[in-house]
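Hi team,

As requested, here is the filled-out complex form for the pyridoxine-5'-phosphate run. I kept the field names the same as last time so the parser does not choke. Let me know if anything looks off before we queue the next batch.

— J.
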Amino acid sequence: MAERIRLGVNIDHVATIRNARGGLHPDPFRAAEIVSRAGGDGLTIHLREDRRHIRDEDLQRIRDATQLPINLEMAATDEMLDIALRFKPETAMFVPEKREERTTEGGLDVARGHNHLAPYVRQLKENGSKVSLFIEPDPVQLMAAHQIGASVTEFHTGRFVELCHAEEGALAGEELERIQMCAEKAVDLGIEPQAGHGLTYDTVTPIAQIPELTELNIGHFIIGEAVFVGLEAAIREMRRLMDEARA
Ligand code: PXP
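And here is what came back:
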């Protein structure tokens, strides 16, 4: 078991609040500095087609704010590929993207999208980025991610969190087992397993206890909690819960 599970903090929603007024505040640059200071291990940012979160000009500013590795979430489009090839994130993560969705609603269908995704994965890897695919905890998708050469798979924890919040304990337990099983299988395949989406203080512990997982990417809850306690305190509490889960 990796002793420490990394925390990647998704700071998109700092930009969402900024964009609501069209000005400069609050600035994701400042959030990136705080993530570093508070013990975050990486930054996740999603450059969406509609630019509702971070914008193109934020990329370099966030890079300049910190030494932390950057996980750039993106749709598999030529526009995003060009941007990622120039920006060279430590990790380029493909996610499905629909304009009408509130957030990334499900994992990528790598099995069906193989021919479309394969050249993107290859070019980004040749350019020096790790390539991550955001998928459901589904062995079929995991095998497809392996065949396409993914370095990392992030398993979607959204369904697990929803089931926990609906107090559907038995179903949540089954979903947790699926995530655990896929994390084990990913390691066997030489893929680094990560997880994220929708995680909260209440739901992070069982996920962080899956020994194979190397990193969790958490955003909305931390930024929401920051409204009440401050960003640094919200990150530190999430970090504490993750460390406690691994202790
Ligand atoms: N991982 C991926 C691939 C995501 O798309 C998101 C949301 O942007 C997250 C993790 C973080 O999810 P949340 O904001 O719900 O914590």
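Two things worth flagging: Residues 169-189 form the longest helix (21 residues). The chain has a mean pLDDT of 95.

Thanks,
J.
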